Amino acid sequence: MGVSTTAAADYQFRQATAEQRRWALHNLFPHWDGREETQAEAQAHAASPPSAEVQAARPLLTFNEDRFTSHHEPALYLSQPTAYGDRTAVPGDCLFASISYALTGSPSNSWLIRQQIASHIERHPDIVSNAAVAEVAGPVRPGETRDQWVRRYTQGLLRLSTWGDDLHIQLLCDLARVNVFLYRQGPGKQPAGGGSPLEAWTLYSTKDGPGDYPVIFLLHEPGHYKSVTRVRSY
Asked: What are the boundaries of the signal sequence (predicted)?
């Protein structure tokens, strides 16, 4: 549920704590036992990724709190972003990698996040529009049911090169129980819409409203997303 940008005036730029982000991750990954992926496991998985069934049964998350904390600088007000978290080198994966960094301190968990969102869409195919499905899966095929068409969409969403959008931000809010502040930046690093930096922030929250849920901060500029770690102080 997008909320009026005037809500941004009521928030400080303060990232969720490690405890809050772990809570959100348990919401998103109900079977996560809290154990972090070791460096050896990360290297092994990079060389030979485990199957989707194995990942779902026991997801291993890279949770790098030191890396996250060293980048984040709190501020009293939401303003123009000036610094960003670790990014992905994979074109098309910027939204999910940014979410991954904002929750875990590492962009490397992006595929796991994609998987949870794709699985939710597959269970609830009516939440995605025909236009969005066609953009990823192409036109419906002769004799294909809509559920089958959406299934091809969710399989496409698992490709790291498939772009994310507002729907996936909204589903993250609902599944992880988080709020997402998204800064919309236009050409020349100016606030989109020509207003003030404060007016460029939009709050996404759960269907029940923002509540007292953890907050993460993202930026969207034409063709790209980033995780925000610092804003301008006045």
From this structure: none
